[in-house]
Design goal:
The complex is a heterotrimer. By secondary structure, chain A is of the alpha+beta class. Chain A contains 19 helices and 29 strands. Helix content of chain A is 28%, strand content 25%. The radius of gyration of chain B is 17 Å and the shape is globular. By secondary structure, chain B is of the alpha+beta class. The chains are: A alpha+beta, B alpha+beta, C alpha+beta. Chains A and B meet through helix 1, helix 3 and helix 17 of A and helix 3, helix 4 and helix 6 of B.
């Protein structure tokens, strides 16, 4: 039997290159390009009254200075709304360079192109922009109170208002024996990849064509958007995503102003231009996410079964809405998790503020939804005095109820219908992993030692594998090399390895012979992008299907050559042979040669395909009517709807009785993402997700002051965890394959992040004995919460006397 | 703000990089990170923040880890600089630390990785046999957004083993 | 984030450096380790026209231990002082504090004298300077002078140093025999600026405290010393009135609020860290070097 690669922890093909300084990130290429820098608004809301670039024009090495007035054609029009929605009644996007107004600190106003970045920044520092400041709106509270407007023509700062419901919530709530209301809050954070954005544009004057390298999660998206903006035919624009130093969602938005302006400038100047975002720019101009205020009212019976769930939340979408309302829609729908809550209604307002716009960050609204649901579950358990895991399991959708239609529309515009999952089994594994039933004893022991510990739990369901499609192209060369191309991009998800594993298995070739290209529109022009944990599901399925096309053709040609039936053949290690008669065989590379009838042999091997060699039927054409030359195939995977992964986390925390510092003693993850192509890769994704989750729960918060200044726009004050802040992560997993795609994959990219804030809140609440409803939480904030609760307790005690 | 000179003065500097003397004329304000990446075409060292916190730009100065974004190129004059390329530039011949990262899945996007490789290479010279706690501590000055650090810590321990197997060579 | 242009000067002697500062000090900065300066330049929060790079000045990189002091030259890197065994034997508090300064890569380049001249209220070494009665040695066009650490710091990032003066060394005072020291700080992340920190020095005679003092990090506008002797002297090391100490600390510190913590929280933290540092130092055997843990 041949070696199976799918399911094995295969070492990564991309590592030797990346480990030895041979990576090619966007700033590594483009030597000799001119470099761009931007003058960005220091004000959160202002009218631009004057731009005086006279001080910069004579700086040695400056090539061009542009403002909005210089932008011709569509380049001067607002950036696109990528995902419109009927209930987004007031979408707004910005311009590539501010036209009359700036709506957040960091918005680009002037572009400088110069010999190098140092000179470009010198020029920027000498450009004087005059502003007339306007009232600033910061935070959900201020926005929804409607006192000041972010956009003049948007009343109440509401970009969208959406209600979704399934069942009659009001009736169910009225009939519920118990009700609770929770007010919850999650603060703003950001993807913060280690590499910021970057664009390098090569303008070919002779061909009139543009090649754009961008640190993007969607090269097809960038290509199309830039071609449209520049009024160029698609045939003259290509986009390549080189090595990318992390994305986590922020790089799915496109086109960024710079992604339009850099190619535009390159064409205009007839010279390569490059822009590499620095960290400060990233903080003030690359999307943020997470900020919401939530209000949950839940009606439940005396066993803790939810009868009615009524959720309202206010989502801070920042100054613009380029990505529509995907994030709050995901919150609305994924909030339900693995549960069937009887009647459900969710209503949200997406609100403008004078801050950086909000677009998906790993989890993309699911962490917020999970937080709302899981805090509610804990509250129900506390109210009834029932074990928190037990309450959850009483609300689970059971395996026999799959597929389960939640009666709502998901972010892909299709029904929210869970395809598979075994939530009771996941919970059983989690309880075993963390020692759920033994914790009371552990806590008693800790208390005797004067230590405060707590155990938390959180469950989630994640819709992954969102469409519309992805494609795969597989080609076998006459050398035996297998080229695989898919159009989505890679920012560390190991696509070059996992897609090679899949194709190697499908085709029966050595893993080393398979070479994968992602994110290059020259190699696969039809694609969507890398987001929503969809890479393995979508491109994995697509390349599997494409490989099957190639396999079928190879077997057909081999069958002809060997004069057997294709059903009698198998392929192993690149050799096609008759099952049970390995002596009768032909190499796959020879089949590749034969697949392309040649007039001219270009090497010794290809002589076999020329017209005077071999046998052929003179009554049939060299290339059959329904066939094509070459051993290659292309196919697309387009799902009817998303597939649903799930997971559960448990955490043990210790809080310092005096300083309220929080330490995570144990962090346990059970996840089910269907078939694992490479378990090592999946586990790595989980680890990384948990680290961002821990960061989001305890450390990371973007803080704006009332004038719209971002107070912590550096790594010194925006606290991403180091190794010492992230616990050891213990994992276990189930595999309930997805019935919706050929390999049964479900996707794992966001699994580690989604429930982290909820589980840590749950654990701290368990340690402290009072509710934790606002996250992230720092030691200082926990300390304040303790004081607030001890005052309340004291007052209550006094009252009762 | 003072008036800058009209044309910036270029200083001739010679820096030993990865064992080779490299000479260039560069402005005084040229950061070592940019000098390595753009003047010497050694793009293995990456730039993540330019304020010394993330560690992606870490190189070895006379064998000790330093942030190349917080050093001017002129300050490296007369010193020995080692970048990730100097630790191993051949994908077919990985150093113990590089080999360990490969085996332990210690990288995903690879952007922070060179800073870890240099830091850990220097660390193991002085501490060839760390405990897991010490290994975690050793890498706690470098940010990674992809891996959650667990496999990086394992890579440190595995690198120590490989070093021993190879007779203590770097 | 690239620095603006400047004229780079690389003097070889203190005299040359001083002459350059005399000429350019008003529009110039001294470059030693650069670990505080270069981030500021990269962010263009400062745009000096001149940088006086003292890294090639002769004679500034020595650590000298005498019976009374540990003299640290201006170019001694934090890491070098941290590793220096004779300095550690003479004054263990140096290594105890230095281990908390940023991360090793920063310590490999940043200088201890530089961090004292920089006078960041969140800096560890200014607190140690004040607690040990250090003397700052400065050189300027008007000659050399010595400034007691207690008089050196005027406010956050502000010292009595003139723009045309260069600190060439700091002499940390050795502590009397029988003194045990400890250093404890609490930061949000490993290596971050402390929310609060404390350096303690406790001299015992037999089982009893003879004198005790504490210096603080991040909770006073300038590093200052709190004399704990009135509360602790005469008390047995296993029976210290730590609650009284905490009250004294609360009365002494004057922290600021910021996005990471309120003033009240920092004050509480300073008091709690002082309790823990004293408890730990008091328990340690008299001759052993107490490793201050963060």
């Amino acid at each position: 039997m041949s070696t199976r690669h799918v399911g094995e922890p295969v070492q990564r093909r991309e590592d030797p290159r990346l480990l030895t300084g041979n990576g090619r990130y966007v700033d590594d290429i483009g030597h000799g390009a001119l470099e761009a820098a931007f003058v960005r608004s220091p004000h959160a809301h202002a009218r631009v009254t004057d731009i005086d670039a006279s001080g910069a024009v004579d700086v040695d090495g400056v090539v061009a200075i542009y403002t909005w007035e210089d932008l011709d054609g569509r380049v001067g029009e607002p950036l696109p709304v990528l995902i419109p929605h009927p209930s987004m009644t007031h979408p707004r996007t910005g311009y590539c360079l501010a036209k009359d107004e700036v709506k957040h600190v960091g918005e680009a106003v002037v572009m400088v192109v110069a010999r190098d970045r140092y000179v470009a920044e010198d020029a920027c520092s000498r450009i004087r922009v005059s502003y007339e400041t306007k009232p600033v709106v910061v935070g959900v509270d201020q926005s929804r109170s409607g006192g000041h407007r972010v956009h003049e023509d948007v009343p109440d700062n509401v970009s969208a208002h959406l209600v979704q419901e399934a069942g009659d919530v009001d009736a169910a709530m009225a009939g519920a024996p118990n009700t609770l209301t929770l007010e919850l809050e999650i603060d703003r954070s950001a993807s913060m990849p280690m590499e910021g954005k970057g664009v390098y544009a090569r303008w070919d004057r002779d061909e009139g064509s543009l090649r754009i390298y961008s640190s993007t999660q969607t090269s097809t998206g960038v290509r199309a958007a830039v071609a449209s903006k520049l009024g160029m035919p698609m045939a003259k624009v290509e986009c390549v995503a080189p090595d990318i130093g992390g994305g986590f969602g922020v790089k799915i938005v496109h086109p960024w102003p710079e992604e339009v302006l850099v190619p535009w400038a390159a064409r205009r100047l007839g010279h390569d231009v490059k822009w590499t975002e620095d960290r400060r720019e990233h903080f003030v101009s690359s999307s943020h996410e997470r900020g919401q205020l939530q209000e949950v009212t839940v009606g439940f019976d005396d066993d803790g079964r939810i009868l009615a769930l009524d959720v309202r939340f206010w989502h801070d979408n920042g100054a613009y809405t380029p990505y529509g309302i995907i994030v709050p829609i995901i919150t609305s729908t994924q909030l339900l998790g693995p549960y069937k809550p009887g009647a459900y209604r969710v209503e949200f307002w997406s609100l403008y503020t004078n801050t950086v716009h909000v677009t998906p960050y790993r989890g993309a609204g699911r962490p917020q939804g999970c937080f709302a649901m899981e805090r509610t579950m804990d509250a129900i358990a506390a109210h009834l005095g029932v074990d928190r895991a037990e309450v959850r399991s009483r609300n689970f959708i059971l395996p026999e109820e799959m597929p389960y239609d939640q009666g709502l529309m998901f972010q892909d515009g299709r029904p929210l219908k869970y395809d598979s999952g075994d939530y009771p089994a996941s919970l059983a594994k989690l309880k075993a992993l963390v020692g759920w039933d033994d914790f009371a004893q552990y806590r008693e022991q800790a208390e005797r030692e004067g230590r405060k510990v707590g155990l938390g739990i959180a469950c989630y369901v994640e819709g992954t594998g969102v469409g519309p499609y992805e494609g795969g192209h597989v080609q076998v060369e006459s050398s035996g090399r297998v080229n695989v191309a898919t159009g989505l991009t890679t920012q560390g998800q190991s696509h070059q390895t996992i897609l090679a594993q899949i194709v190697a298995d499908e085709l029966g070739v050595p893993l080393d012979s398979v070479h994968v290209t992602t994110g290059d529109t020259r190699r696969m022009a039809y694609a969507v992008g890398t987001f929503a944990s969809r890479g393995a599901v979508m491109s994995g399925s697509a390349v599997a299907l494409a490989a099957r096309v190639v396999r079928a053709k190879a077997l057909r040609i081999a069958a002809d050559a060997l004069e057997v039936s294709p059903d009698d053949l198998e392929i192993e290690d690149g050799v096609i042979s008759v099952k049970g008669a390995p002596g009768t065989s032909i190499e796959l590379k020879t089949v590749a040669v034969l697949s392309n009838p040649l007039r001219y042999a270009f090497d010794a091997e290809t002589q076999a395909a020329t017209q005077f060699t071999g046998t052929f039927d003179p009554d049939k054409p060299p290339v059959a009517e329904d066939d094509e030359p070459g051993l290659e195939g292309q196919d697309f995977y387009s799902p009817t709807r998303s597939t649903f992964a799930n997971g559960m986390h448990a955490a043990v925390v210790e809080t310092d009785p005096v300083t309220a510092e929080v330490r995570i003693l144990r962090y346990c993850v059970v996840h089910d993402c269907g078939t694992l192509v490479n378990p090592m890769v999946v586990e790595g994704q989980v680890h990384g997700g948990v680290a961002q989750g821990v960061g989001g729960a305890l450390y990371e918060r973007l803080v704006y002051d009332e004038s719209g200044q971002l107070l912590n726009a550096s790594f010194m004050d925006f606290l991403m965890p180091y190794a010492t802040e992230v616990p050891e992560i213990e994992t276990d997993h189930l595999e309930t394959p997805s019935p919706l795609n050929p390999l049964g994959i479900k996707g794992a990219g966001e699994a580690g992040t989604i429930p982290a804030t909820a589980v840590i809140a749950s654990a701290i609440e368990d340690a402290e004995g009072f509710p934790v409803r606002s996250m992230p939480i720092s030691p200082y904030e926990l300390w304040e919460l303790r004081r607030a609760h001890s005052t309340t307790t004291t007052a209550a005690q006094e009252d009762s006397r | 703000m003072s008036n800058p000179p009209d044309t910036e003065e270029l200083l001739d500097i010679t820096v030993h990089v990865n064992g080779v003397p490299r000479t260039a004329a560069t402005p005084a304000r040229r950061l070592l990170s940019d000098f390595l990446r753009h003047d010497l075409d050694l793009t293995g060292t990456h730039v993540g923040c330019e304020h010394g916190v993330c560690g992606a730009c870490t190189v070895l100065l006379d064998g000790e880890p330093v942030r190349s974004c917080l050093l001017f190129a002129v300050s490296a004059q007369g010193h020995e600089v080692t970048t990730v390329e100097g630790i191993g530039n051949d994908p077919a011949a990985l150093s113990p630390v590089q080999q360990a990262f490969l085996e332990c899945h210690g990288l995903q996007c690879g952007f922070c990785t060179p800073g870890f490789v240099t830091t850990i290479t220097a660390y193991l010279e002085d501490h060839p046999d760390p405990t897991p706690e010490e290994a975690r501590d050793a890498v706690s000055g470098n940010l990674c957004r992809c891996t959650g650090y667990q496999n990086i810590v394992r890579s440190v321990l595995r690198a120590a083993e490989i070093r021993r197997d190879r007779g203590g060579q770097r | 984030m690239k620095p603006g242009p400047f004229v780079h000067h690389a003097p070889r002697t203190v005299e040359e450096a001083v002459a350059l500062l005399g000429e350019h000090g008003h529009d110039g900065k001294v470059l030693a380790g650069g670990q505080s300066l270069i981030p500021v330049l990269n962010m263009r929060l400062a745009n000096p026209g001149h940088l006086v790079d003292v890294n090639r000045v002769e004679g500034l990189d020595a650590v000298e231990v005498t019976g009374e002091t540990v003299r640290v030259g201006a170019l001694v890197r934090h890491a070098g002082l941290e590793r220096h065994d004779a300095a550690f034997d003479a004054l263990p508090l140096l290594r105890q504090a230095l281990r908390n300064v940023a991360h090793p890569a920063i310590r490999n380049r940043g200088t201890t004298v530089g961090s004292i001249a920089h006078a960041d209220p969140a800096g560890e070494m200014p607190a140690v300077a004040v607690l040990t009665g250090a003397v700052v040695e400065a050189a300027g066009p008007r000659g050399r002078r010595e400034i007691d650490a207690a008089d050196f710091f005027l406010g956050p990032l502000e010292t009595t140093l003139e723009p045309d003066e260069l600190v060439v060394a700091v002499r940390f005072g050795r502590l009397p025999p029988g003194t045990r020291t400890g250093f404890l700080e609490a930061a949000r992340r490993h290596g971050d600026y402390a929310l609060a920190g404390v350096a303690v020095a406790v001299r015992t005679e037999g089982e009893e405290v003879a004198e005790a003092r504490a210096g603080f990090v991040s909770v006073t506008p300038v590093p200052s010393v709190l004399d704990l002797s009135p509360a602790l002297s005469g008390r047995r090391t296993d029976d210290l009135p730590l609650d009284d100490v905490a009250d004294l600390v609360l009365g002494h510190v004057d922290p600021e609020s910021d996005i990471h913590a309120s003033a009240e929280y920092r004050a509480m933290l300073a008091a709690e860290l002082t309790r823990r540092a004293l408890a730990s130092v008091a328990r340690a055997p008299a001759d052993a070097a107490t490793e201050g843990a963060a």
